[in-house]
Every structure is written in structure tokens, then in C-alpha cells.
Design brief:
The protein is mainly alpha-helical. It folds into 2 domains: 3-55, no CATH class; 88-251, no CATH class. The chain contains 12 helices and no strands.
Length: 254
């Protein structure tokens, strides 16, 4: 078999070789001086284009693409909802962090009320804050409930008058500090607690922590019975914590 016969029998394979391949370059160089081999290479190139066109898969129908997209989005939504609902470990960790905040802040204060009534009210408020922290996944309704509990505590304790800006700022700072405890507990638990993934649950969790701080202030604040002070700084701290929790999560990139 001559070289021309070999080239023409392999014309399709030679046409499929990438540019720069030694065999392809040698065949092209030979074809420049051999019309028959040049014709064979041209036919191989045309046949290769036909094969590529016929074997190329057609795009899937638009309806099939839409069904696939809907299925993927539904699965993603299901996973997001599952992550947004805290499990029992999350509830327990959130509740424990709120009670720990109350206990720590109460213990660290130099001055505390010692009468039984104050301790009963403060303890009840702390327990309520812990329960609401465990229900924080409910979202905005729990946040509103925490703020209502804060207002009730203010009205229950408030009887006197007077507002001290210095004391008030300190009280609000304590409540905002307490509001961070559930989030810190979720971060330190290394995945055992699912941090909130929506603004409503974040607002509820921050408000519950702030309510625990307010409960400790019921025992330690020097103006614990001054109604204007309680309205502006104690209730105001819980409201501010709710807004901060929602806004910080909303501003966080996905």
C-alpha cells in the first residue's frame, strides 16, 4: 500500500487531529503536492463536521428545565426552613444562655435587692425570658411578646419618679450586653445550636437576652422603681435590642 493509499484511508482520523499534531502536519504538507490526498482530507473534514452536527445533543425542552429548576428551588427552600427551626439542643442552649446571663449579671453587681418579692419577680422574668428564647424561631410574634413582658415588668415595678442619664445608659448597656449571650452561645456550641437565619427570630432572641438583663436590673438597678427611668432605659433597651438583632442579621451578607 502506497503512502497515498494510507493517507486516504485515514483521512477522517487525520482531519480530527488537533492543530500542531505531527501526523496531521505531515498529511497537510503531502496534500499540498497531491490533489487526490488533498481531496480526501477535505472530504474527511466535511464528514467530521457532519458527524459533529448529528451527534451533538439537542438542548432539553424548556418545560423540562423549568421542572428541574422548581425541584432544586423547592429542595433549597426545604433546607432553609429546616435550618431556621431550632432543634431541642438549640432551644436548651438559648434558654440556658439567657438564664446564665441573668445569674451572672445579678451575681457581679455590688448591690442587690434582698427582699423575697424582688427575687420572685426577677426570677419569674428571667424564666419567662428563657422560655421565649427557646421559642425564638417563631419570629416576630415572640419578639413582640418579649417586649410586652418587658413593659409589664416596668409597670409592675415602676412607682417613683426621676431619670438619671448616667445610670440609664449603664442599664441599657447591660441589657444590650445580655442580648448578645444567646448568639455567643450558638457560636460557641459549634453547630449544636442553629443560629437564626431570619430577622424575626434574631429579633426575638436578642429581645429575650435583653429581658434577662432587665430582670437582673430589677435586683441591681439603683433606680429600679423609678417609672420614667424604667420606661426610657429598661423598656427602651429591650426594644433597641430587638431592632438591633433584626437589623444586624438583615445587613449580614448571605
Amino acid at each position: 500500500m502506497t503512502n497515498c493509499d494510507q493517507l486516504r484511508s485515514r483521512a477522517l482520523a487525520l482531519a480530527a487531529l488537533p492543530p500542531g499534531d505531527p501526523d496531521g502536519d505531515a498529511a497537510a504538507a503531502h496534500a499540498r503536492s497531491c490533489p487526490g490526498c488533498a481531496q480526501a482530507l477535505r472530504e474527511g473534514t466535511r464528514l467530521l463536521k457532519v458527524i459533529d452536527t448529528e451527534l451533538r445533543p439537542s438542548p432539553p425542552p424548556e418545560a423540562a428545565l423549568q421542572r428541574a429548576q422548581d425541584a432544586v428551588l423547592a429542595e433549597m427552600d426545604r433546607e432553609d426552613r429546616a435550618r431556621a427551626v431550632p432543634n431541642w439542643r438549640s432551644r436548651l442552649i438559648f434558654a440556658a444562655s439567657v438564664l446564665l446571663a441573668f445569674g451572672t449579671l445579678s451575681a457581679l453587681s455590688r448591690h442587690r435587692a434582698m427582699d423575697a418579692e424582688s427575687w420572685i419577680v426577677a426570677g419569674a422574668a428571667a424564666v419567662l425570658a428563657a422560655l421565649l428564647a427557646g421559642l425564638s424561631n417563631t419570629g416576630l410574634s415572640v419578639a413582640l411578646g418579649v417586649n410586652a413582658a418587658s413593659a409589664a415588668l416596668v409597670l409592675l415595678a415602676g412607682a417613683g419618679t426621676g431619670v438619671s442619664a448616667l445610670v440609664g445608659i449603664k442599664c441599657m448597656a447591660i441589657e444590650l450586653f445580655a442580648a448578645t449571650w444567646p448568639f455567643a452561645a450558638a457560636a460557641l456550641s459549634r453547630g449544636m445550636a442553629a443560629r437564626p437565619s431570619a430577622a424575626g427570630p434574631a429579633a426575638a432572641l436578642a429581645a429575650a437576652g435583653a429581658l434577662a438583663g432587665q430582670a437582673s436590673l430589677h435586683l441591681t438597678c439603683p433606680d429600679a422603681h423609678a417609672l420614667p427611668h424604667l420606661l426610657v432605659f429598661h423598656l427602651g433597651g429591650v426594644v433597641l435590642a430587638s431592632l438591633a438583632g433584626a437589623l444586624v442579621l438583615r445587613a449580614r451578607p448571605a
